[in-house]
Amino acid sequence: MKRKIGIVGSREYSNKIRIKNTIFKLKTRFGEEVEIVSGGCKHGADKYAKKYALDFEMKYKEFNPAHTVQNLYSAMNEHYYSKEYAPKNFFHRNKLLAKYVDYIIAFIPEGIPSNGTMDTVKHAKKLGKKIVIITWFSIYSYIFIYGEKGYEI
Question: Please, are residues 98 and 124 in contact by the beta-carbon 8 Å criterion?
């Protein structure tokens, strides 16, 4: 069974080793049966999700916002892109990403607001998706702090 796993997070998240190790564990455990999905931001968690998914030769897709240009990994068709910039494009992207994936792993640095990431988490929660939130200082590889029950991916 193919698993579509959204790797999202703050633009400020810089613990690339944590993201690399997480993606490596997913590849080791699921092999070809996992697809990594991100929001396509050029900074932070999205940047590292793309880098390591491609470095590990995994399936990769991104939901970059409508005001950006389509690229090789873009999830939407060409008519979706190159629109006028508007902040709502980010929130629409978050909703599309949450709908597409089976799981969300969110990387959030402690004490730094991550409104876009939490918007994605909110949509995923409404859709009944499994959510894992990893902070900079998390001791375990997967820490679930959104709700009452933990999930193992």
Answer: yes
